[in-house]
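Appendix B. Raw example, untouched.
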Amino acid sequence: MELFQYWNAVRGNRDLPRRDEIDPAHIRSLLPDLFILQRQASRDVRFRLAGTGVCALFGRELRDGQFGDLWLDSEADGTARIAEEVMTQMTPMLLYARGATGAGDELDVELLLAPLASSDGTNDRLLGALSPLARPVWLHMTPLTHLVSTGLSLPDASPNLPLDPAYRQPATTKSNVAGWIGRNNRKVSHLRILDGGRRD
């Protein structure tokens, strides 16, 4: 929620903010769980940056890897298409998933995917967060081998939501990010949004 509010504040009345408007100082506590994806000319969706917490969950460096590789083989293409849809439609989405280790342990996670533009305005990136919903004793010691999706929803992306004014910044503000690493049933383009994730 904190990342979503920050993203919403930075974009203002626009569809999405630019990458160079994201100031790590404003979301310092979230940085280990954040990542940036970019759509390549080949249409692959790859990690440009991945926080230490995200990499630790999977026991490997994710930079330059494909987003679909985090998922069960049968879901790899579908989840990559969802990420691309976030960029194309400029609409944030929440993914709910269950991770599994090689030993069979499981962990529920949430992923926020929020559209982000390159410095030239092209909507070919997204800012994401991957948040574990529990802290088992094996977390960050036993890597997840894959994720399985359990649901998908749209957060309320109204630009008029009440937000912390500390997040607000002029559209011309530029920061270097290279140094850090209502659910509803409706249709978005070809996707159908299904209930999932936590019920509390």
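End of appendix B.
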